[in-house]
Amino acid sequence: xxxxxxxxxxxxxxxxxxxxxxxxxxxxxxxxxxxxxxxxxxxxxxxxxxxxxxxxxxxxxxxxxxxxxxxxxxxxxxxxxxxxxxxxxxxxxxxxxxxxxxxxxxxxxxxxxxxxxxxxxxxxxxxxxxxxxxxxxxxxxxxxxxxxxxxxxxxxxxxxxxxxxxxxxxxxxxxxxxxxxxxxxxxxxxxxxxxxxxxxxxxxxxxxxxxxxxxxxxxxxxxxxxxxxxxxxxxxxxxxxxxxxxxxxxxxxxxxxxxxxxxxxxxxxxxxxxxxxxxxxxxx
Amino acid sequence: xxxxxxxxxxxxxxxxxxxxxxxxxxxxxxxxxxxxxxxxxxxxxxxxxxxxxxxxxxxxxxxxxxxxxxxxxxxxxxxxxxxxxxxxxxxxxxxxxxxxxxxxxxxxxxxxxxxxxxxxxxxxxxxxxxxxxxxxxxxxxxxxxxxxxxxxxxxxxxxxxxxxxxxxxxxxxxxxxxxxxxxxxxxxxxxxxxxxxxxxxxxxxxxxxxxxxxxxxxxxxxxxxxxxxxxxxxxxxxxxxxxxxxxxxxxxxxxxxxxxxxxxxxxxxxxxxxxxxxxxxxxx
Lengths: 284, 284
Known about the structure:
CATH superfamily of chain A: P-loop containing nucleotide triphosphate hydrolases
Structural class of chain A: alpha/beta
Oligomer: homodimer
Helix content of chain A: 40-55%
Number of strands of chain A: 5
Radius of gyration of chain A: 21 Å
Shape of chain A: globular
CATH class of chain A: Alpha Beta
């Protein structure tokens, strides 16, 4: 237990967004090799499943807390794969997934946080956002459609929104999946070469790739302006899928370990219920 | 492929609801032993994950089809465990879980299918109902609150509703998890004995157990009246969790294999996109 507490921030501390981005193929903390990473993911998965069950049970018992994992990153950075390999480790009953595409005409009529709020996780749940409100400070900025003043206003709105969430018991874990342009080229090429992967490709991915430096600049600004004490950003080197999976799983395990979700106390007398149960016997 | 087609209904045919319920600890089809069952679940899981990905891709490409798994059964029959062990085998992006508890005051003001319709799976998704509209012909009947005429009316409404779903491309897989009263006693006792399981126990579980014969009668009637050609019931012997998991996974695999979901044809010229991608090169 003491050890757990001592190391409770190890991965979060090592991956917290700083002034410099790590090498997308590096291991700032944790396993260096795939074989080790796979084993460590397995044990992180068991921890995560147990912690998630406790959080779910706490929610059933009336608890209000939840976790929101926000996944951001360039196309092919592995948002969907992370959902499959990390969130896939826990009971789907406790997971709430929401993907955010380009806002629809109806959504654009509202404040940019409107559609986000509707998808926040319920108490006891592990929510995951595959893209998020951060798209609304990234895409329009790169397209030259977001004046600096409005951008600053959105940052302030995001920070206030996330403060509201954390104040109300939702731990917000924001992850930037950081890949290299070389790795993206390999992955986009694979999506074109393999027929069963083509559905993941969209011609607009190439437009975004053309804007790579502008996106990197926009991301750097986002990481700087919206990494707060209540909701810091983590940068996960994501060129190696096994490292990415392990790192995101560990970020969730550390977060949930700190939350220390509690199985609720029964609202009934256990001995009384045991006696009642025995009294029923085995019906014919 | 020929073999697949020949055996494509093997598990569905064997588990389809008939006049008699199978022994809850039997294997009407498939593995007899736990070790074999575990291995077979693993391979069914791989098939299921692949089929689910194709269905999801089909949905992204504009396809309207989906799957709805309806789980019913007495308390402790393993609805939640099935979700964890079977739906947990596929990417959570493609799974939509909905649990139905006792209807709220607001829900009771509407037709009983109102709250159900709101939770139907989106195109390309694998929806799972943990309890369902069937609660509304089971519970009120056992409590003596559903006159026979109204019950018959609800059966007709359910059959029409499910016909509408299947006509519109949603495969409906209805599973009755069949446990013995002896096994339920063991599981309820375990929930009381183990503090980390107590949150799953509700004193009303004992009331329902007291009504065991009435529930069995109500279930038999439901299986008879609502097992239709478009949406038959399957009875899964569920005293052994490994058998239950394997059987439900196989029912889904057979259903999806028959649907034969298709990766969508690209809406772009692959060679053109490949050239465009190479043209961008590696941004600095």
